[in-house]
Task: structure prediction
Amino acid sequence: MDTLSIKNVSKSYGNYTAVDKISFNVREGIIFGVLGPNGAGKTSLIRIINSITAADEGEISFMGHELNREHQSEIGYLPEERGLYKKMNVQDQLEYLGQLKGLSLKEVRLRIQEWYDRFNMEGWEKKKIQDLSKGMQQKVQFVATILHQPKLLILDEPFSGLDPVNTNMMKQEILRLKEDGTTILFSTHRMEQVEEVCEEIVLMNQGRLVLTGGIEEIKQQHKDNIFQFTFSSNQLPVVSNDIEIMQNDNDSALVLQFEDLAAANIQMKKWLDEGYYLKEFHEILPSINDIFIKLVTAPSEVKPMVHNA
Amino acid sequence: MKKILLIARREFLIRVKNRKFWLATLLGPLILGIFIVVVGLIMGYNGDDEKSILIVDQANLFNGSIKDQSNLYFSFSKEDIRTLRSHSSEAYDGILWIPKIQNVAVDEITVTYYSDKNLDIEKLTNLKSIIQREIKNFKLKEMNISQVQLDQLDTRVTIETTAISTDSSNPSGEEVGRSSEFSSYLGAGLGMAMGFIMYLIVFINGSMVMRSVMEEKTNRIVEVIISSVKPFELMMGKILGVGLIGLIQFLSWILLIPSLVLIGNMFFGFETDMETIENLNRTGSISPDEVEYMVYQVMQEVQEIQWFKLVVLFICYFIGGYLIYSSLFAAVGSAVGDDMQDSQSLILPITIPVLMAFYIMMTTIRVPDSSLAIWSSIFPLFSPIVMPARLAFNPPWWQIVMSLFFLVVAVVFMVWISGKIYRVGILMYGKKASFRELGKWLFYKE
Result:
């Protein structure tokens, strides 16, 4: 079942269209990436899913029902702009935020205790947020986000401002939540992070959907038939003119673009017959970043040049 | 509703737990009390500058004897003014030369004060009134009028207001104004105090709500909160929590300030009071018995004020006025960023009606039944400040009902408008919004 199903959702502020007819589905229990550069409409879309704002058009269903404000208690949201009450202590803060999500005080206290144990936060209860380090604040914020055990967890740039240790810890925690069945919506403009954790993605640009699907699937669709040949010696074969050389700065490797896999195989056989020893042969798939840049910049190249007067 | 209460509870507790709240609640009145007492002392300060004055009494007004004042010492001389002026003396600071009074009909006399140092205004007036009094006495003697005769010329008049209708079953069922002059003085004092308290509540707590909104926006926590509750719930919870703080603070102020002023007066101000009464006695207008009667009468009036009605209505106007203005302050808080200075221009449209209401309230106390007073006590932006000031004068019921009706309508309208602005404003970062943008926000869909 789909945790989230978004159909033709649009949102505009005055004349500015932030989200333009976006549709995609998020399967239950996966990590789903929402990608796009700054200003692509990611945050606007996320706010709609959180019932912070309403869509002008389109339908959203959550766990098979039409999305409404009641679902807020089943969604956890870590906004890009982190924030906590600076002068409140950790315990009060977590109790308050948990209760706002509809938990009883007793329940909240039990769960907070569990998280203190898990995140090594013992002894923080009475500390004010302003007295904690940034990394510690992030931990508190993360706990506040998942305290009510949401079915859908929305993380907007979750790793921004984290040091490598905390980034890793956060990543482990996200994976663990996924194992427990939480669906995770992961929004970022850092494409390389997506490839590490996401299974499926949607790419947005200027409010529009650029592409959506599984990461592997997308890469296969947008591959350029680039292959890397690594030879056992520094003696490289001569490449004929009809083959495009992508990269040859390496002493023992050639990166070449072919028409398809068959063409690459024919070339490989030829070289083997000529007596070259191949150590490695593999296809180089484009990164999501490459695909994104290709898709986003391609149309603008077609546009006629505008001369400035 | 449960979430509104949760939010209100946090807003309330976070302030109650703060040491600053207790300082403001307890020390505030103390400081204000001290301030009032000190101002009283300063106002009553006669200066430690003492002057001794040599009087050349050509008119023989004083008969060679005059009572020294607290900072004026007198002595007499029969010597000619020219000889006195020719040689300076350390014995006196100045010479007061009073010319002969030619006849009783004279209505202007110029007295000359010779000195190298100026007299301050207070001593000058003091001196003038002493001479005036003595000239009057001198003239009385010349005209053969006794003090008794003079007293008989003065008649004290009090006007007692009584309703025309003697019908005991008047429509409102209340006792219509068998009120004396005292009750209008009392009403004025009470009305002024109530209007002023209302003015303070609106400003202090309104801006407290605004700062709280701004803080959440700068902290960026607002987005987390409104992913759990409606922006409107957040705004209302905030207004409720801060309102409760305001109520507690002002109740404690109302109790503490007068008692502190009273205590302060007992220690510092007692002398002045005795002097005033003594002065009254000396001029012979009020006898001690009459003072006692006055006090008794005031007490009577105090008891006759319908305290229950007054308090209930005051609370109604407090709630109404507070809701109108604090929701507007919340809207402003949401429309500005972290910069307090940005908020100034947006606060202005809120400040203007509050200030206007305050000045109208001041005139209302003098003329509580003027049409200005009546209409502004019905107009909901003014009524929370103006009407409490009129309540002590027993305005007709229809005016109160009408005023409350418009107040409720205005509360609903203002809270609705502010909610619309607030909901958009809290998610807008960066520059301060203009009024045009605020207007546009009203029509944004959710």
